[in-house]
Amino acid sequence: MLLVVAAFIVAFVLLLYMISPLISPKPLKLNGAHVVVTGGSSGIGKCIAVECYRQGAFITLVARDEVKLLQAKKEVEKFAINDKQVVLCISVDVSSDYSQVESVIKQAQEKLGPVDMLVNCAGTSISGKFEDVEVDRFKKLMEVNYLGSVYPTRAVITTMKERRMGRIMFVSSQAGQIGLFGYTAYSPSKFALRGLAESLQMEIKPYNIYVTVAYPPDTDTPGLAEENKTKPLETKLIAETSGVCQPDQVAKIIVRDAVQGNFNSSVGPDGYMLSALTCGMSPVTSITEGLQQEAFVEMYDRQRDSVFSCSWPSIKTVFGMAALGAASLTIGAYLTQK
Ligand SMILES: NC(=O)C1=CN([C@@H]2O[C@H](COP(=O)(O)OP(=O)(O)OC[C@H]3O[C@@H](n4cnc5c(N)ncnc54)[C@H](OP(=O)(O)O)[C@@H]3O)[C@@H](O)[C@H]2O)C=CC1
Ligand SMILES: CCCCCCCCCCCCCCCC(=O)[C@@H](N)CO
Predict the structure, then answer these.
(1) CA distance 76 to 54
(2) What gap in Å lies between CA 180 and CA 176, rounded to an integer?
(3) CATH number at residue 205
(4) pLDDT tens, residue by residue, 251-302
(5) How many domains are there within the chain?
(6) Least enclosed by CB within 10 Å: which of 126, 150, 222, 320?
(7) Dmax over Cα atoms in the chain, in whole Å?
(8) Is the confidence metric ipTM above 0.90 for this complex?
(9) Pocket of ligand 2 (CB under 6 A)
(10) Which residues of the chain register pLDDT less than 50?
(11) What residues pair up with 35 in beta bridges, in sequence order?
């Protein structure tokens, strides 16, 4: 009897894995697509631009400093795969004035066509103990990291909805998944992106637009070098547990996840675990992802249960089973509707 039940469970899980591709979005074709990258003149943003360009995309780089923009344009252009491809540069502060952001995005769309993918990567960080960070820096970080992602997104969303296609990417951080010593100003600005992304995804899923939030670890960029000049030792030591990545490696993963329409994008084993542990109610874009999260959370929860010396199955298990049941019903409904 037990064997039959076990066989049923295994068969059910296998079935879920097999039909998983059916509920996942159709991948975006980067060849010929128009990709706008804010913060595209340096670090992770520049590498994202390169990664898209080498897959045939047309690129608009957005940042403030024109010299850095032109330099980046030259670097990106080296990776052309055909002679039609174009790299456009736009100098604007994404955080200061919405109407300005709206008008430059309009210009870019007139030149290179409607935006297929927007990558919100412009951002900056400040670390330090809460009482040591100048008070106006809290506002500054919310303006650049949060509003600087709201404005470009707002400027592209109407056209994307009309065309019923598109991708929107927010570059958060592992410090946008957990709060860390020294990041009282930075972490909240990165947490905010997730709230925005989750809400927005609910609104635009019916329009075939997919949102991705990326949570990179420390990455070797000019931005990190600048941050390290004044970073508290505690912050450095905590961040080091997750290692330092190369920006091209991070960009590859981010672009792959955006193309696939994955809501969540993380780097490395630590990133993967952090994402599973902090998944909350974030949308899952594949059944596989949902099952893995469930398994992970369950595993860690068990450990917590043992700490609190509680030996019966946690309430989470019951909810987990209910969720699986609900998921299979939804899939059933979806398939019969097709
Ligand atoms: N490096 C890391 O360790 C990690 C970084 N991140 C995030 O990734 C993103 C990129 O980081 P990284 O590559 O290190 O950063 P860099 O400092 O190397 O590059 C930042 C880019 O954003 C642009 N930018 C900054 N402020 C504005 C603004 N107000 N308006 C328009 N453009 C702006 C910069 O150009 P300009 O100054 O000319 O405007 C530059 O192109 C950031 O959001 C960061 O928080 C997340 C996790 C880890
Ligand atoms: C069981 C799970 C184990 C996971 C270990 C968790 C370790 C947390 C490390 C957090 C690193 C935060 C990096 C922030 C990078 C950043 O955004 C700035 N550098 C930007 O400039």
Answers:
(1) 9
(2) 9
(3) 3.40.50.720
(4) 999 999 999 999 999 999 999 999 999 998 898 887 778 877 777 777 766 5
(5) 1
(6) 222
(7) 72
(8) yes
(9) 125, 173-175, 180, 217-218, 223-224, 227, 238-239, 241-242, 270, 273-274
(10) 307-312
(11) 59, 117
